[in-house]
Amino acid sequence: MDAVKKELTRKSKASRQDQRGKLISLACVTLIMLVVLSILYMITSKGLATFFENKMSIVDFFTKQVWNPSAKPQALVGALPMIVGSFSVTVLSALLAAPFAIATAIFMVDIAGKRGRKILQPVIELLVGIPSVVYGFIGLTVVVPFTRTVFGGTGFGILSGTFVLFVMVLPTVTSMYVDSLKAVPQFYREASLALGATRWQTIYKVIIRASIPGLLTAIIFGMARAFGEALAVQMVIGNASILPSDLVSPASTLTSVLTTGIGNTVLGTLPNNALWSLALVLLLMSLVFNLLTRFIGKKGAF
Amino acid sequence: MNAKRVDKIATAVIYLLVGIVILILVALLGFILITGLPHVTWSFLTSPASAFNAGGGIGDQLFNSFYLLFLTLLISFPISLGAGIYLAEYAKKNRVTEAIRITIEVLSSLPSVVVGLFGFLLFVVQFKLGFSIISGAIALTFFNLPLLTRNIENSLNGVSNLQREAGLSLGLSRWKTVTKVVVPAALPGIITGIILSAGRVFGEAAALIFTAGQSAPVLNYANWNPFSGDSPLNIFRPAETLAVHIWKINTEGIMPDASQVSAGASAVLIIAVLVFNLGARWAGNYVYRRITASK
Questions:
Q1: Which 3 state secondary structure label does DSSP give A253?
Q2: Residue B130 backbone zone (phi > 0: left; psi -120 to 50: alpha; other: beta)
Q3: Using CB atoms, which residue from A25, A130, A290 is nearest to B106?
């Protein structure tokens, strides 16, 4: 009797197999979560060292304009120039890219026939695929001389950074907005056209209105990409840690100071810790962008 | 102004903006290919870079890029396959799953320079691996994981439930159903995703400058012992990739032909990305045709 009972209550081969499989796949997921948590933990602890170990003032960090962490006897860690630089290129490039992205997305979903879509889809995919150093190289050889001759100054600066980032965020915003335009129910369009509205009236009064949350999500997503972009911006912005007074004089962003600085400072010293604080600001901003898209996305679901 | 005229004007404006977008891409590609391609010769592709003189090539950098790509995919594919399977097949709809999705999304939205700095801190400094291919490959894995995982999850979700039910009704365990039925059925999508992510990894530089390093030591391609210093297969040597090379010679290069070299290297990079993009489509379709026996 016991032998039979054992045989019947024992886990089958299939069930053991399944448990093992579930464990393996769960381990993979756990690994990814561990990676994220350790990134957050390490950057945070490194970034806060400036304020807790080196006793620099957080308020000064966000408000002072002089960035010279290796100055003696009093180091100066005012990150305002970089923060302003990062936000200016991000906002300006998003503003510049938005009309183009909206037009392209609307064209792809509501105006172009099958052929237009067939041409534009690869255009967008290719623009996404071009590596950022190539954008930086083109920025250096084409955009910088162009801004120098047209707008004056050295050519290096926020304006050049904006032009380069504009091309980089354009495909991101476009493809995300295309998705949310496709999600607008077809009967919205039919109802509007049936009421006698022209195509533009339908687009402007119905489709765009209905897809506003999607549009905002797309633009914030593009801004997140622009904010975190390092090398392309670093190559054209001029890398001067001073508060930018106009758009054509050299400036710097959080990412550009990070890429140029980390290799030239000694780990554990204040100049290095100060850079990690910049990385922390970058990390927190990307979390903020993430939260914003989630928040808007929840409101805008059809 | 009547509505019809407004409609015409608005349509014209949209056409204009779209035209500008297409023009930008054509100009970009045209510029890179026209300035770069004349410089791309066989010797440019195979000879090592030179730091001070004109006439250096990109041979080592090209090899490093492909080697790093290979290692990255080798590490990240199994992990993302497992994670994708968990999310698509096992995860229940609850708070924990939601938290997992949020973390993966956070990882995908982190700037690549932050991921690179983390790799620098953990592998280069903490684990004392130094600037090495393996540090770079792991940093790129972090960068690649969320996108590949999402792609695999979507491909698995695209497989019809009938297939799963058929597998289960034959008495297979759920795991066997997934590995023997669902994953093969989702293969075209998974392969397309891998190749697309390969294109992204191939062009990535920001995550690499502080992990794989910015120097390309002299390599001896006849040395196949992966543990010796000048072997190209050694994973503990620093390795400057093509994308990092372009960045480096443009920011601190002193060679006289820096702009020609970077134009040539950019052209190679762009062509590689083009090939990956087209290859992804072709390979997806090819595998689909093979496994479904449809024309």
A1: coil
A2: left
A3: A290
Percentage of chain B modeled with pLDDT above 90 = 22
Of B28, B122, B125, the CB nearest to A267: B125
Question: Which residues are within 8 A (CB) of B119 and not within 5 positions of it... i.e. 6 or more apart?
Answer: B135, B136, B138, B139, B142, B207, B210, B211
| Smallest CA–CA distance from A263 into chain B, residue | B210
**Helices marked H in chain A — which ranges?**
2-9, 13-52, 58-63, 80-106, 114-129, 132-138, 144-151, 158-183, 186-194, 199-201, 208-210, 212-228, 231-237, 254-261, 270-299
Q: Which residues pair with A77 in a beta bridge?
A: A67
Fold topology of B40-292: MetI-like fold (1.10.3720)
User: Domain A81-299 class?
Assistant: mainly alpha
pLDDT-derived band at A92, boundaries 50, 70, 90: very high
Question: Which chain A residue shows the shortest CA-CA distance from B264?
Answer: A134
Asked if A282's CB is within 8 angstroms of B111's CB, the reply is yes
Q: By C-alpha distance, which of A226, A282, A242 is closest to A46?
A: A282
B209: Cα separation from own chain's centroid: 16
Q: Are A116 and A107 in contact (CB under 8 A)?
A: yes
CB distance B40 to A142 below 8 Å: no
CB pairs under 8 A between A and B: 251
H or E element that contains A196? none
How far apart (Å, rounded) are the C-alpha atoms in residues A154 and A157? Answer: 8
Model confidence over B105-149: pLDDT tens digits? 889 888 988 999 899 988 888 888 888 889 999 999 998 999 999
Mind listing the pLDDT tens digit for each residue in B226-285? 777 777 777 788 888 888 888 888 887 667 777 888 888 889 888 888 888 888 888 888
pLDDT in tens, A209-246: 989 989 999 999 999 999 988 888 888 888 777 777 77
Chain B residues touching residue A107 (CB < 8 angstroms) = 14-15, 18
> How far apart, in Å, do the first and last CA atoms of chain B sit?
54
- Substitution target from B121, B140, B181 for chain A, most A beta carbons within 10 A: B121
Q: Write the ipTM.
A: 0.88
Q: Do B81 and A30 form a contact (C-beta atoms < 8 A)?
A: no
DSSP letters for B225-266: -TTSTT-TT-TTS----HHHHHHHHHHT---TTHHHHHHHHH
Q: What's the CA gap between A196 and A4, in Å, rounded?
A: 78
Chain B residues lying within 8 Å of A126, measured CB to CB: 25, 29, 273-274, 277
A261 touches A276 (CB < 8 A): no
Q: Show the DSSP H helices in chain B as ranges.
A: 3-36, 42-46, 59-85, 95-109, 112-119, 133-157, 161-169, 174-177, 183-185, 187-203, 242-251, 258-292
| B204–A42 CB contact, under 8 Å | no
Q: What is the pLDDT of residues A177-209, one digit of tens each?
A: 998 998 899 999 999 999 999 999 999 899 999
Helices B112-119 and B133-157: crossing angle, nearest 10°? 130
- The Cα B138–Cα A80 span in angstroms is 33
